[in-house]
Write a structure and sequence with these properties.
By secondary structure, this protein is mostly helical. The protein has one domain. The chain is built from four helices and no strands. α2 packs across α3. The longest helix has 48 residues, at 63-110. This is Zinc-finger. The chain crosses the membrane at residues 88-111. Keywords: Membrane, Transmembrane, Transmembrane helix.
C-alpha cells in the first residue's frame, strides 16, 4: 500500500469499516511510514475529539493511547485471520493426503497388487 492508498483508508480504519483485504497492507504501511502514522494520529485525534464533544464529554483523554489500542486490536484481528487461514490449509492438506492414500490403495487393489 502506498501513502495515497493509505490516506483513502484512514477514515475506514478509524470507524472500523476498513475492508479486510486492505487491513494488512494498511497496518504494514502504518508501521513503515512515519508520515502516515502521524497523519493517522491527526485524523484519529480530530475524529475522537469531535465525537466526544458531540456527546458533551469534557474530560481529558489519551488519544495516542486510544489510537495504539485500536492499532493493536487490528493487529490481533490480522493474527486471528492468519491462524484461521493456517488451520484451513492444514485441514485441507490432511484431507488431500487421506484422499491420495485412499486412491493409492484403490489403485493397488484394482491391479491386484494389494490383497
Amino acid at each position: 500500500m502506498n501513502c495515497n492508498e493509505f490516506e483513502t483508508e484512514i477514515r475506514h480504519f478509524i470507524d472500523g469499516s476498513i475492508d479486510p483485504s486492505q487491513l494488512r497492507g494498511f497496518v504494514e504501511h502504518l508501521h513503515g511510514c512515519p508520515e502516515c502514522y502521524d497523519e493517522l494520529g491527526i485524523y484519529f485525534i480530530v475524529n475522537t475529539a469531535l465525537a466526544k464533544v458531540d456527546r458533551d464529554e469534557a474530560q481529558s483523554y489519551d488519544f495516542q493511547g486510544q489510537m495504539d489500542i485500536l492499532i493493536n486490536d487490528y493487529e490481533k484481528q490480522i493474527h486471528h485471520l492468519d491462524m484461521k487461514h493456517k488451520t484451513v490449509c492444514a485441514i485441507t492438506n490432511t484431507a488431500n493426503i487421506v484422499v491420495l492414500a485412499a486412491l493409492a490403495i484403490a489403485f493397488l487393489r484394482w491391479f491386484n497388487i494389494l490383497q
